[in-house]
Amino acid sequence: MTDVTIEKPVLEPTGALSVETVLSVKHWNEHLFSFRISRPASFRFRSGEFIMIGLKGDNGKPLLRAYSIASPAWDEEIEFLSIKVQDGPLTSKLQKIEPGDQIYLGRKPTGTLVTDALLPGKRLFMLSTGTGLAPFLSLPRDPDVYEFYEQVVVVHSVRRVSDLAFRDEMEGKWGDDPLVSEQAPNQFHYVPTVTREPFDGHTARIDKLVESGALFEGIPGAAKFDPDTDRIMMCGSMEMIKQFGAYFEEQGFTEGSNAAPGQFVIERAFVG
Predict the structure, then answer these.
(1) What is the pLDDT along the chain (272 residues), one digit of tens a residue?
(2) Which of 71, 217, 222, 250 is most buried (CB neighbours < 10 A)?
């Protein structure tokens, strides 16, 4: 028997897309993976932004989707976090990538999950479900965030313990990160919660943690959200975004944007 070599499609850059190389892939479980790709020397973005990435579709044209960038703006590589959808037009192919493969990368990052879209405050809360964690992996590794806020909090709600991607890094308060290893131990807080499996931490949904005050345990300041001091970013399920969007407006928070900074922001590119 002879080994059969499967030819990988060769991608060609376009005016809107560069072609990058997959550098590493990590499969967290059967439906969650992350991967790192090369970064063009000219590629600039703000921590928290998203970009179009993709592969060649069955019709030979680029098949693209918007993905939040999970690496900080200073990183020499670009990282992404993705679910695996077996019949998904893109993710069915994307989950099979290997180091050395080619991938399309858009040239124009954008988004509202950035500090520019928020007014100054004391505490930054980043509320996420599932792969909505991705932009909140970027921001806590950006040293500027620790200059803008006294406390930086990532809340991550998932169904299973194995869905807690990057748990070790966050529990370690980014100790191996060269640019934030001094600020993060005193300013960074990680609040994971697992809703459908036994867990040695929180097991309630984010709204219940807010109601009980459990979300604020160990975080300096009030055990509730305060529009005068707290700034909020949200990314994840549509249910969570809509629920908390209404909640924060009722509490006197205003939604921000790049043009008009406010007290909370969501990424509308991912919300129906």
Answers:
(1) 555 556 677 899 999 999 999 999 999 999 999 999 999 999 999 999 999 999 999 899 999 999 999 999 999 999 999 999 888 899 999 999 999 999 999 999 999 999 999 999 999 999 999 999 999 999 999 999 999 999 999 999 999 999 999 999 999 999 999 899 999 999 999 999 999 999 999 999 999 999 999 999 999 999 999 999 999 999 999 999 999 999 999 999 999 999 999 999 998 766 43
(2) 71
Is there a contact between 83 and 94 (Cβ–Cβ < 8 Å)? no
For residue 73 the two structure tokens come to 């703006």
What count of Cα atoms within 13 Å lies in the side-chain half-sphere of residue 139? 37
Domains of the chain in sequence order: 17-106 (2.40.30.10), 115-268 (3.40.50.80)
Q: Which residue has the tokens 């707290």?
A: 230
- What pTM was estimated for this model as a whole? 0.94
Nearest residue to 25 via CA among 38, 16, 37: 37
Is the separation of the CB atoms in 49 and 114 below 8 Å?
Answer: yes
